[in-house]
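Now produce a polypeptide, keeping tokens residue-aligned:
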Amino acid sequence: MFAGTLLLAGCQVDPYYDAYTRKKPNNPDIVGTYILTGQTLNDQSVSNLRTKAGVTASPQTLVIRSDGTFVATNIPQWSEGVPGDWSIKNFKSGSGKWKLDGGGGVDSRWGLDFSSSNIKLPNIDGMGTCLLGEKPPYQILLNLARDPDQDEAMTFEKQNP
């Protein structure tokens, strides 16, 4: 009984579990411009991250295009210290391809699978990139943690056209 109590005490909960997109979205509903609105990798606000990086004039964005390509602008590239205390190595911009992926597994969530030779974004394999919300407009969650219970992620919200 004591071992079971220890096991339960060590188990955390994925804070996004109830928000994951579980019904397959239509690609046109995903297409658009998303802006970084939150992060849980350290205690800095998004506006403070932008100021420190000198990118106040150009926010961190993901543009998801209908032709299966994406453009990422000023995306923080993080360096992990101790859990909950990540630091920014630099900001990168790049482009590549995306596709809708998911719907299987234990929690049946949907996300985006990014491929690029010039910028690294987390993918759906592992905890990676998930969609949040059951209907449009969706949010994009870039989860950098190895374990989703750690809540080390960036959240992007879709902008109005």
The chain has one domain: 18-158. Strands lie at 32-39, 61-64, 69-79, 87-102, 110-115, 129-132, 139-143, 153-158.
